[in-house]
Amino acid sequence: MEENLKIELLSEWIQEASRPVIIAGPCSAESCSQVMETALELKKRNVDVYRAGIWKPRTRPDTFEGVGSEGLKWLLQVKQETGMKIATEVANVKHVYECLRYGVDVLWIGARTTANPFAVQEIADSLQGVDIPVMVKNPVNPDVDLWIGALERLNKAGIRKLAGIHRGFSSYGPGRFRNLPQWQIPVEMKRRMPQLPLICDPSHITGDKSLLREVSQKAMDLNFDGLMIEAHINPDEALSDKNQQVTPSEMTEIIESLILRKIQVDDRILKTTLGELRQHIDSLDADLIDTLAQRMVIADIIGGYKKESGITILQSDRWNEIMEKRLKNGTKKGLSRDFMTKLLQAIHQESINRQTLVMGK
Ligand code: PEP
Ligand code: MN
Questions:
Q1: Is any atom of ligand 1 closer than 6 Å to the C-beta of 57?
Q2: Nearest residue CA, atom 1 of ligand 1?
Q3: pTM of the model
Q4: What is the extent of the structural domain holding 300?
Q5: Phi, psi of 211 (to 5 degrees)
Q6: Could you tell me if the CB of 58 is within 6 A of ligand 1?
Q7: Are the beta carbons of 136 and 143 closer than 8 angstroms?
Q8: Would residue 263 count as lying in a domain?
Q9: Closest-CA residue to 138 (of 149, 128, 129, 130)
Q10: CA angle, 29 as apex, 27 and 34 as ends, to 5°?
Q11: Which atom of ligand 1 is nearest to the CA of 228?
């Protein structure tokens, strides 16, 4: 399925920006001097859009919740003195009105808000007839339709300058990343809405400045249109998201180290070689599907025998044996344990579903 949104190109609302578009600035606007000093440094570094949170959606109370509308005056000063576009997060109608009053150029909807259709609808309604770009962060939960739904609500209200921001997904327990990237989700967004500009926010994915380069490179290799990076004039003193913020010069180092590969293949010989390799992949995939279909037919037959002899579908010993042997075989052939486990579990689940149908007949 492909979605039918009416979306304008990123270049139509961020003129003269080259790929990747850079949106940068502190997690939060904290003081006039912090906002201005950070902005002057970022202006020198060709940042296209200056970001700063004015109202902060914090997980726990009694933490810094943003300076509120006063900070919009500082952003307006950034716009007037540097010419950069200014962007901030809106989570309700009051935020929208305040932003429009102070000339904010670009709005974004935060991950927690995208997860709430009531809130998104209210924001969309308040933007009827306003021609302002809105970027929509992925919802905290990995739900492609919820993300697309938020974009649709804005589109129906007449907003055509839209972009998605991939900032990763919540999960339980400690891990390498603050929010799991689950790259297959932005890839699916690209498939369903090829015209939607996609920005990656490596700061909120990683939660750790030492991982920003790696995630930014991956985003470039997946054809993202831009990056949103949290940069602060003095990250050690930041009032929120201290560990993931970089100084403007650290940000430049990261961006300059990125390898930008071409999206189109224009070399004729490479095109032919890639074409042949892809044909090979197509034929292997066809074999895989045939094999899986045959396997399921046999599972159905086994299901029939299990029914006749009154034994349960799940035979734990057999399943353990399959897992163990296949994992060993797969890892010996260079397939990762994680991939093999997921694949075998999916196949097993499908066999169980089919045998359940056979049992019920
Ligand atoms: C932010 O960009 O400062 C922010 C709060 O992000 P998210 O909505 O992705 O958590
Ligand atoms: Mn932040």
A1: yes
A2: 27
A3: 0.87
A4: 268-360
A5: -105, 0
A6: no
A7: no
A8: no
A9: 149
A10: 105
A11: 2
Beta-bridge mates of residue 135: 108, 163
Q: Identify whether 121 is part of a domain.
A: yes
**Tokens 């037919």 appear where?**
297
User: pLDDT (tens digit, 9 = 90+) per residue, 1-15?
Assistant: 678 899 998 988 888
Query: What amino acid occupies position 147?
Result: W
What is d(CA 30, CA 86) in angstroms, rounded to the nearest whole number?
A: 15
Q: Per the omega criterion (within 30 degrees of 0), is the bond before 20 cis?
A: yes
Strand partners, 51: 87
Residues 231 and 290 in one domain: no
Indicate if the pLDDT at residue 18 is higher than 90.
no
Q: Helices 32-44 & 70-82, crossing angle to 10 degrees?
A: 30
Whether residue 246 is found in the same domain as residue 285: no
Could you write out the DSSP letters of every residue in 47-80?
-SEEE-BSS---SSSSS----TTHHHHHHHHHHH
Question: Cα(39) to centroid of ligand 1, in Å?
Answer: 19
Count structural domains, the chain: 2
Q: For 19-60, what is each residue's pLDDT tens digit? A: 899 999 999 999 999 999 999 999 999 999 999 999 999 999
CA 16 to chain centre: 24
